[in-house]
Specification:
Blueprint lengths: L9 H11 L12 E4 L12 E4 L1 H8 L5 H9 L2 H5 L5 E2 L9 E4 L2 E5 L6 E6 L2 E9 L2 E9 L5 E6 L2 E4 L5 E5 L2 E7 L2 E9 L3 E11 L2 E6 L2 E4 L4 E3 L3 E4 L2 E5 L8 E5 L21
């Protein structure tokens, strides 16, 4: 009888993710599988566990990658060395139209193959789609209070930083946490045409935007939008100055800015499980 594999406890999985820099220890890709180096899947010792991308995991199982090479990479993960992951492509978005669901609010492009942003701050598309050669190329930027990138998706290629407390990519849902129970971003990718931000806390140039089940809120002014929609070739939510000619669903051209060191006064990410 085959011995049943016990479940890997969440703290053990998190310890392995943190140590490995949220990506394959060999190549750094942020889509990965947990691998037991000594091949005993019933013993979950985090020191004997690592992260491998699907390709390297399959090659290791076939004996094409020496175990010693995996051990060496586990001791010195490529992402920890560089501070960021290797770029991973999100290639499933195609067609002339796409939409964002952000805190229950929907944003979509006004016409076929027209670029649009769900969130724009100071003219910079924080969450947007760009259309090119039949492909919908996703843009998503997540910064800390110092405008340092935590997550960057540019033209459909995404890179994550090793700064966050934890990052998981389970199925089609990417979750970034700042601490236990503190979700900084939870995004669901639904190719070929939809991206949903379930929870988020977006910072840029002293502007703070919170996304939750209650809607989208600019914390600088206390404005909140719930269960609304915008069809545009510009931006659904635009905070701060923007380029001329940009069509906007809801605009706040002037807001007081948070200084980086005063953000502890800002409500920040909602505590949740």
């Amino acid at each position: 009888m085959t011995k049943q594999r016990p479940r890997i406890l969440a703290p053990v999985q998190r310890e392995v993710r943190q140590r490995c820099g949220f990506g394959c220890v060999l190549c750094g890709l942020p889509i990965y599988q947990i691998h037991h180096i000594e091949r005993d899947p019933t013993i979950h010792n985090p020191k004997d566990m690592t992260l491998l991308c699907p390709n390297h995991h399959e090659e290791e199982k076939k004996g094409l990658i020496p175990k010693g090479q995996v051990r060496a990479a586990n001791a010195d993960p490529v992402n920890r060395r560089r501070g960021v992951s290797t770029a991973q492509q999100l290639a499933g978005f195609t067609g002339p139209s796409c939409s964002f669901i952000v805190g229950g609010c929907e944003a979509k492009n006004a016409g076929p193959n027209t670029d649009f942003a769900a969130i724009m701050i100071d003219g910079v598309p924080i969450l947007a789609f760009h259309f090119e050669d039949g492909h919908a190329l996703l843009h998503l930027h997540l910064f800390n209070e110092y405008n340092e990138p935590v997550l960057v998706v540019r033209d459909g290629w995404f890179v994550v930083s090793t700064l966050p407390w934890d990052i998981t990519f389970e199925g089609s849902v990417l979750t970034i946490r700042e601490g236990k129970g503190r979700i900084r971003l939870q995004v669901s990718f639904d190719p070929p045409s939809k991206v949903e931000i379930k929870r988020g806390f977006f910072l840029f140039n002293g502007v703070a935007i919170a996304v939750s089940e209650h809607g989208v809120e600019c914390l600088n002014k206390g404005n909140r939008w719930s269960r609304c929609g915008a069809t545009t070739n510009g931006a659904a939510f635009a905070i701060g100055p923007r380029p001329p000619g940009i069509h906007v669903g809801w605009a706040l051209p002037q807001v007081e800015r948070y200084a980086a060191l005063s953000l502890q006064k800002c409500p920040g990410p909602t505590r949740t499980e």
